[in-house]
Amino acid sequence: MTIRASTGLKNAMLGTVGLKGATANGVLRIYSGAQPASADAAVIGTLLMEVTLDGGAFSHGSPTNGLNWDTPVNGTTSKPVADTWKGTGIAAGVAGWGRYYSNPLDDGSSSTSLARVDMSVGKGTGDLQLSNVNVAVAAPITVDVAILRLP
Hints:
By secondary structure, the chain is mostly beta strands. Helices cover about 10% and strands about 35% of the residues.
């Protein structure tokens, strides 16, 4: 597993906001290729899909269809069991990694102030376990398991 927390997320966690506050109502984007060296770095790879609550439309700054983490247990948090995290392919390719973005506007460029988490992706393995890692345009894919253990 390769979880990388951004400087912005680390600062929020060390302050009064905490992980759940800093990442509330976020969005997950799945990319092809290898993860960047840091969650502060600009995205690399092709954006394959955007994952939201029930696959609904997402807009930074609004809580509508945003994703939230469950209550932590033993130093780990995960996707709430009752939630469906779903995306639809916007480009074809093999899912390589994902970035969880907090709710404030984030275009994926280099930043040390925005709260982000980069995570590994797989089918049956990885921090983000997808129903299918082979993304096709217009094909729905769910995140069956999402586990977050911070380094």
